[in-house]
Design goal:
By secondary structure, this protein is an alpha+beta fold. It has helices at about 55-65, 115-120, 125-130, 180-195, 200, 250-255, 280-285, 315-330; strands at about 1-5, 5-15, 30-40, 90-95, 105-110, 135-145, 160-170, 220-225, 235-245, 260, 270-280, 295-300, 335-340, 370-375, 380, 390-395. The chain contains 8 helices and 16 strands. The longest helix has 16 residues, at about 180-195.
Amino acid sequence: MYVPAMKPAHLRHYMPRIDHRSVGGNPKTTLTFDSFAVMSPSAPIFIEWDVDMAPSAREALHEMALEIPYLGRSESICNAALVHQIEDSTSVSWRPAAKDDPTDAEILCAQQPLELSDLVQSPDVVRSSRRLFPTGSRLVPYRKTNSARAPAPADGWRPTHAAVRFAVHPRPKPILADAVVAGELLRRASLSKHGTPSETLSGKGPTGQRQLGRHEHAHYISLPGPGRTEPSSPIESLLVWAPSRLKGDEFAALAQIDWLRAGRAVSGFPDTAVAVQGFGDVEEVAPEVVGPSSVWVSCTPFAPGRHPAKRTTWPDHIAAEVERELTTYRDYPPPVSVEVIDGDARRFRRYRLPPKERLANSRYASMVEIRFAHAVRGPIALGSLSHFGLGLFKPIE
């Protein structure tokens, strides 16, 4: 077997037992230690058999390889194929150890002949029988025949992802009115996990100055369920969207986030468990905020970044600020119309967490509808605190 350089990792989570029932009684779950190896998604794994095969057997193996959807874990999607020669010399070669050979690792393998009852044993059955391993299994010693440098997870990992979507644990869920809180906590968690300064995640340059250009750094966006825009709507997902795209180390930092905790800074905001739900281009990860559409309506209120001039009405000021942001900072065509619509923006939090801001810093905002002459693609997030979840628009048509 030839394996690329890798890093060990694991998850610990509760899984339903085989006798679990969703209705009635106490839920029956068991803590599972789920270990796996992390390696480059573009690096191949080779499994070699030193045997001569008849043409019919080789054809059968070829057909079987094409039908393999994943390797080991169901999320480890793969493409398998039968090859005649191994060309990758950078991989680590592993072979079963002979009796007198040193052992570098032990692999749990099934005994021959296979018994179906052994293959389907659950962790509960193994534990209740006071065993470390299932019956019908054995540890096979393996040795390395060469070695390779084990790079850090981000070595050679080019920016390929523009968005990461997080699922929010169902109990309890924060509400859309606190989108700014969720956005800021997600930003703080990402910077904490990353450790070193990141312009994409922080929105700040090397000297700490704010990036005021094309708003290419990360947006931390709260997403309610389909058709929900009320302030009391539960936040179903969280989205980190960076138009400039995320580097490998930045994505790795986001993948480590599992809790958002406001503590005493915000009353009523629950400690929220999150987990990565998807990553890739924003069109794939969060199509509900991409469109295309010619009509876009506020999901969270738009707060203009400037105060209105004297004798300028609030609706006119909103229209001018929306058009300025669309055309000056985000490469959108001028809108046909911008209207203030019904909706109580005051029910949404419109200031950041202490010590940055307090209630006195709350911004004036309104719910807005934007119409374009032709359908445009999102996401569209405009105005003050748009990188924290405010000013998000959703496509209507």
